[in-house]
Fold this protein.
Amino acid sequence: MVDQSADSSFPVLPTPYAVRFPEAPAATEAVDVRIEGRWEHVLLSDRERLLALPGLYDQLVGEMLRCRAPKQAIGLFTSVLADRDIPARHLSVIDLGAGNGVVAEELRRLGVDSVVGIDVLPQARVAADRDRWGMYDDYLVADAAELSKTDYRRLIANDPDVLVAVAPVGQHDLSTKAFATAFNAIRTGGWVVIDVRDELDHSPFAQMLRQMTQLQVIRMEATKRYVQRLNVDGETIESVAIVARKLHDLPQSLVAPHAVTMDRDNRNDPITTRYSTLRSAGTAITLVACVTVTVFTLLSRQDTRQTVLDGTGPLSEQQETMMADSSSATDATVTPAGNLPSEVTPAITPSTVQPDVAPETPEENLPAVQAS
């Protein structure tokens, strides 16, 4: 078994499990773990099983696979706060997908005043109480996409101004609706700290992040590409840590599949209202224009076969121009603050995200995984 990384957020375990890694690459990440005298096949995506076995999550993900997500993401946030001379002690955080509290531990080291965790798995709260007691002011066992009014009041009880969504294994199971509910629960002007994997570029979550930037729902403050962890085959997995500022609540129109989300004041979403009005106005203008052009064509005795529907004549060009004008309000872009290059958006591709800090050299810092 490899030695623990110097920047790992996970504790060294006194009695580690025996773990066998796959001999050949597989489509799904999994290992064999010796539990009570027998070998059990455990998927890395099976968070419930990983968290149920005391110490296994920290040993496998944190120590053996060298996960750096919590420390890197919160470290980037720490740098942003320091650059702006903002004290962490007054911050109130929502930890979305809290798990066993590894992110909350980093937040407490930063000095934040309040942390409320939320996770859909009952076993996650059990693991947090077992592994990192006292890290949370409150811990909700609930699906953020389907919160009751009581749970929502608990979520916003400490007036949160920071949302952290950092998943050491990946954001594959983070729904856009769950993120939207937690995002709208924090104050306008608050902070968002997330970690995104490159291969999620076309996922609903990554697409929503791009739209949030384009519509100025968030403003990108800092990004950092880094080696998140090793996979079970010993290969490095890169991630991008993102720190952004919340400018507005998330419009319901961006949440797939058009789910209704709660906002902290139970008010109508001003952005959704604005763009709904623009779309309605654009439709009305287009209909009036079509009628006017058709009448003009008949009066001038031109060929009536050339109509708005044939898509070949000047009338279709006029219609395209009007449609472009009516939708131009949704094409806004954000100029990232500070020293970030203008092309940095949540597109999360190697060609667009520029690291603030040169990524670590995997060969020097990340020895290959060895089976115990």
